[in-house]
Specification:
About 15% of the residues lie in helices and about 30% in strands. The chain is α+β, with helices and mostly antiparallel strands. The strands form three sheets. The chain has an eight-stranded mixed beta sheet with strand order 2-1-6-5-11-8-7-13. A three-stranded antiparallel beta sheet has the order 4-3-12, with no helix packed on it. Strand 5, helix 2 and strand 6 (about 85-90) form a beta-alpha-beta unit. The two termini are about 30 Å apart. Pfam families: MOSC.
């Protein structure tokens, strides 16, 4: 299966879900044009409260559509954009990528993966039990976060459903994703 973008979403408000739109424009060093998380420094309210000068490593939120499938089978009402992601993909193991992997989206956009989304209480506010459903345990017992990955925009460009996704891995050694 080819890796593709299946949906794109944005919201100017700090809301949990983001409405799906035909296309989004990624702006280098900033994020998604018209999205509440656009900027060089952190925009997530809890992070701003802690230190508003932190670099924004969470400019773009990506979720693999296969997670939606799994959650729907478990009885959750989720779809593209409902968990706050900007880009939904299929055919790519986002959670298995190393830190620094670059996703080439469509004709010109490039997003560098910075880490894992840390599932928060907003998931349970949306639908009870959703936080637990996106958490798990690795074989060594450590916490597994499965609510998507975060990234920064390296090269801007338009991204829309149907665009291809190509992965460029960083030089070895590959570093595992951690929460950002």
């Amino acid at each position: 299966m080819n890796s593709i973008v299946t949906a794109v979403a944005r919201s100017a408000a700090h809301s949990f879900s983001k409405p799906v739109v035909p296309a989004i424009m990624l702006l280098a060093g900033l994020g998604v044009e018209g999205d509440a998380h656009l900027g060089v420094t952190v925009k997530h309210r809890s992070r701003v409260k802690a230190d508003p000068t932190q670099p924004n490593l969470r400019q773009v939120h990506l979720i693999h559509g296969e997670l939606h499938d799994e959650l729907q089978l478990a009885g959750f009402n989720v779809a593209e954009g409902t968990m706050g992601e900007n880009i939904t993909t299929r055919g790519i193991d986002l959670l298995g990528l190393p830190r620094g992997a670059r996703l080439h989206l469509g004709e010109s956009a490039v997003v560098e993966i910075t880490g894992l989304r840390n599932p928060c209480a907003q998931l349970d506010n949306y639908q009870q039990g959703l936080t637990a459903a996106v958490l798990g345990r690795h074989p060594d017992g450590s916490l597994m976060r499965r609510a998507g990955v975060m990234g920064i925009v390296i090269e801007g460009g338009e991204v829309r459903a149907g665009d291809s996704v190509r992965v460029a891995l960083p030089a070895l050694p590959h570093l595992p994703l951690e929460r950002v």
